[in-house]
Amino acid sequence: MTQPALLIADDQRDVREALRLLLKAERIDAVGVDGPAAALAALARQRFDAALIDLNYTRDTTSGAEGIELLRALKKLDPELPVIVMTAWGSIDLAVEAMRHGAGDFIEKPWDNTRLLAVVRNQLALGGSRGEAARLRRENEILRGEGEDDFIATSVPMRQLLERLDRVAPTGANVLILGENGTGKSLLAQRLHARSTRAARPLVKVNMGGIPDSVFEAEMFGHVKGAFTDAKNDRIGRFELADGGTLFLDEIANIPLAQQPKLLRVLEDGELERVGSSRTLKVDVRLVSATNANLAAEVARGHFRKDLLFRLNTVELHLPPLRERRPDIRLLAGAFVERYARRYQRDTPSISQDALRALDAYAWPGNVRELSHVMERAVLMLDGHVIDEPALNLRSDAGTTRANAVALAASESMSVDAAEERLVREALERTGGNIQRAAGLLGLSRPSLYRRMEKYGIE
């Protein structure tokens, strides 16, 4: 697998080299530059999975203004790039200001290696490796076009979902977003925050799968200087950073059982203490969480607290898988083709009828994220002006034909056998009766295809 790439911007060579060596031991490729101009030039040349930038450079060594300018410029070039800010003159106000401009987290100099690595890993988990970062950008575009209001939602389930979201958004109620991987839960959380009364305050995102159990409390609630061996400075946690705004906890099912009571207490009374402090702090946070897990089943197995689930799911929003919103598939595919043609400076190709039928028939186990990936690949690899079925390169396995049939049956109110027969006939028609090619399209062996042809009386 390709190692994740991290952009480091700091005007001190010793700092850049120390960070590079530390991250190299963690199998992270670090590219160091000495200032904002060089950082922007590097991002224009190369795709990075995250950035770690100083807030102060030679022009102004205390205010953080130069770093905030760089942060805004980086986010303009790549809105989904996770950015960690770093400064020797850290303060809560400056950290919050950076978060408002899109920073994912902050580090104070001199840094603690354990803390820095935990933050970097968490931000890389949010953005992913190069391939994952691209998929995350697609996920954040799942339901919309270029503007946040351009949601592609012609299907009944999606229209109902967005109507429900718009009713819930201004209420301030905690929301649990449920849905399979690749359906767009992160984007839905952003839309919810944008339509809430807290839209002007921070939206703080945390991937719960990226926080080790050992630093959970310090990450979520902060700590004071001296609370533990490596606590060299006071640090605010995610709840404080989100005060007045929204805290989005992705992969909520990954919270260790031992940490769940601590989260529950904050949700019940809005109070917390930083690690190592006896001072109680009040926070006003709206919690939005998301998972692809069955939390009721996790409760039954004793892996998730029932009382915590009750606090999380004041309102539940169920994001349907793509197979349940088939009227949106062709529109989404067309939108993705236009987007990637612009991104890669290509003429916008058309999509052939056989390709559209293949898109309709496919089960989409990876949901809209997979559709976006398929269309991006088709645009990149296309030699011509029309995306046909082979250009989609929909790779199937032996079970996909039946899965496609189940999805088609559910969407068109027919039996699974009738749907499977239709898929087999369409594959044979598209390939001109070529058994080998038809079997390949269906993800079947030749003998398996012959058995189905015999079953359905196809000659």
Brief rundown of the structure:
The protein has 459 residues and is of the alpha/beta class.
Give an account of the 3D structure.
The chain has 459 residues and is α/β, with parallel strands linked by helices. The chain has 3 domains: 129 residues, Rossmann fold; 181 residues, P-loop containing nucleotide triphosphate hydrolases (Rossmann fold, 3-Layer(aba) Sandwich), CATH 3.40.50.300; 133 residues, Helicase, Ruva Protein, domain 3 (Orthogonal Bundle), CATH 1.10.8. It is 47% helix and 12% strand. The chain is built from 21 helices and 14 strands. The strands form 4 sheets. Strands 2-1-3-4-5 form a 5-stranded parallel sheet, with helices on both faces. A 5-stranded parallel sheet has the order 7-8-11-6-12. Strand 4, helix 4 and strand 5 form a beta-alpha-beta unit. Helix 2 runs parallel beside helix 3, helix 11 crosses helix 13 and helix 20 crosses helix 21. It is globular, with a radius of gyration of 25 Å. About 5% of the residues have low confidence.
Query: Mind summarizing the main beta sheet?
Result: 5 strands, parallel
Mean pLDDT: 82
Integer-rounded radius of gyration: 25 Å
**The CATH H-level homologous superfamily of the largest domain:** P-loop containing nucleotide triphosphate hydrolases
Q: Can you tell me the overall shape?
A: globular
Structural class: alpha/beta
Q: Which oligomeric form is depicted?
A: single chain
CATH architecture of the largest domain: 3-Layer(aba) Sandwich
Strand portion, in percent?
5-15%
In the CATH scheme, the class of the largest domain would be: Alpha Beta
Helix content: 40-55%
Domains (count): 3
